[in-house]
Amino acid sequence: MSKIPIGLPRCAIISARKQEGSGIQLCAALWPCQHITCEIELFVDKGLFIVFEGGEGSGKSTQAECLLQRLLDAGHQAVLVREPGTTTLGLYLREYLKSKRPLTLESELLLFAAARAQLVAEEIRPTLERGINVVADRYTGSTVAYQGSGEGSVAM
Ligand SMILES: Nc1ncnc2c1ncn2[C@@H]1O[C@H](COP(=O)(O)OP(=O)(O)O)[C@@H](O)[C@H]1O
Ligand SMILES: Cc1cn([C@H]2C[C@H](O)[C@@H](COP(=O)(O)OP(=O)(O)O)O2)c(=O)[nH]c1=O
């Protein structure tokens, strides 16, 4: 575990599990940012996939940008992605989703899923395949939290 090149001195690894295939997934809690989580996937010979999740205003974007800068400063290649966003479709759907137009929960879920599918295909997967680290500001945890819980949530 000490060989993982994430350079986060205040990062406490709280769990690790083997993924299907070659990956190991680590779940980390950042201190003192107690309201966000940072999830790291390590794939042999591929980039790290590092996800920040948390409520609005909890500090995800700030910490994701700090980590990106730190990785770059340490000589690692890394890119930052944001959900929904980053791709042309993601940015388009972000505007639509923020526009407060009437949407069923199912439609909302599918629009977030469409933005993610495009992001994975266009950016996340090819970048990781090239051995470049990806830092993500939100990912599937947001969908589980926002569309998958609470009253009237969508069954997933
Ligand atoms: N560790 C921190 N300590 C204090 N303030 C912070 C910290 N991280 C972020 N902030 C501030 O909190 C606010 C929300 O941060 P932001 O990164 O935009 O959150 P999010 O992306 O989760 O919405 C910003 O004003 C930011 O400067
Ligand atoms: C990725 C994702 C985001 N969201 C929501 C959470 C946020 O309210 C919004 C994204 O807005 P954003 O401005 O990125 O949030 P933040 O203030 O945390 O930076 O979309 C979902 O409901 N489902 C999802 O799958």
From TrEMBL:
Name of this protein: dTMP kinase
GO biological process: dTDP biosynthetic process; dTTP biosynthetic process; dUDP biosynthetic process
Entry-linked NCBIfam families: DTMP_kinase (TIGR00041)
Family: Belongs to the thymidylate kinase family.
Sequence ranges assigned to domain Thymidylate kinase-like in this UniProt record: 52-151
GO terms assigned for molecular function: ATP binding; dTMP kinase activity
Keyword Kinase: yes
GO cellular component, one term: cytosol
EC number: 2.7.4.9
Record organism: Geodia barretti
Keywords for the protein's UniProt record, in alphabetical order: ATP-binding, Kinase, Nucleotide biosynthesis, Nucleotide-binding, Transferase
Superkingdom of this protein's organism: Eukaryota
